[in-house]
Amino acid sequence: MIEGFNIICISTSAWERPWGSRQQIMTRLAAKNRVLFVEFQLSFLHLLRYPYLFIRELNRRLRRKDNNLILYRPFPGLPFGNYNKGINFINSMMLSRQLKRIIKQYGFQRPILWIFDPCAHLLAGSLGEQLCIYHCIDFFKKEKQSSSRNNFISAAEDILCRKAGLVFVSAEEILKEKARLNKNTYLMPSAANELFLDPAIYEKVPEEIKDIPRPILGFVGTLDERLDLGLLDFLSDKHPEWQIVFIGALRSGIIARGLKGKRNIRLFGWKDNALLAGYIRNFDVCIIPYRINDFTKGISPVKLYDYLSLGKPVVSTGLTELLPLESSGLVSIAKDKDEFCAQVSNCLASDNPDNRLKRLEFARSNTWRKRIQDISGIIAGRLS
Which one, of 52, 37, 45, lies nearest residue 7 by Cα? Predict the structure, then answer.
């Protein structure tokens, strides 16, 4: 692992949630480096649309997670900064000024600037960094229906890719695109949390799940437009004896209305990452019921590795990044609703210790610790 660096991470999320590759990477780097984790910059419109965010805004903006990890919540910016160049410029300059004060206050000179948010492209080169990294974990320009938003993000990403000294991407489909813009582009898929490989952390069965009748199908992750509601409705109706458990924050009214009211669908809400293993351990089959579209083609689901690190069978729709894992028996891929049901039934009927061992071995060889070693080697080579 690289050591002794100041790292400024520009995230696409808050620290607490949704928990994913940003936090997994920065938590581990903070063991031997100083990390400033900059949460996603909200706009005033967010506060008007989601009043609960006002409570978050009342908390301290700058807080120390531990000796080497500092969290910063930026002041809200103007709305539509990811649609409009002028607004994005104003928000970027506001954020840059805030960060320069923190750099001076905490001595974060000559940092590695690690950007996950493509809309922060104007920060590249503005903070005195010795290296700028763009870490692309999604097809951001294909996430929404708005063409103006997607066009702006596409242009911002192109600029950031060209300005960055290194580009890391989480999926092969993204690699094909970004490698044309920057020759120093490397594939870094999601990985398994090595802590999940320790049986001691999930010995206690969570109260919510211990009395649920079997079998249990489980999903961990944000409940948003990526979910295939038609598929879930089909599963619920065709197999009322299956209990379908969702662990994660609801981010869509459409999804909420689609899932609520079903007797065999249970929504347990967001849980702290440290508690997830206890829930996953009690799933009989883990599912990834995502719609297949241009956006999901670039998804490398962290949840897959969490599932496999607990030895669980996984049934997924045909996500591009998961197709190579089908032949080795690590994931069962379904092409349609009926096949999804059939794959779940097959996993329930025929899972065995040999299959579980194969999943655990895959997870052990693909941990975040290993990813950090690979990333560190690339960074060291670039800085030498």
Answer: 37
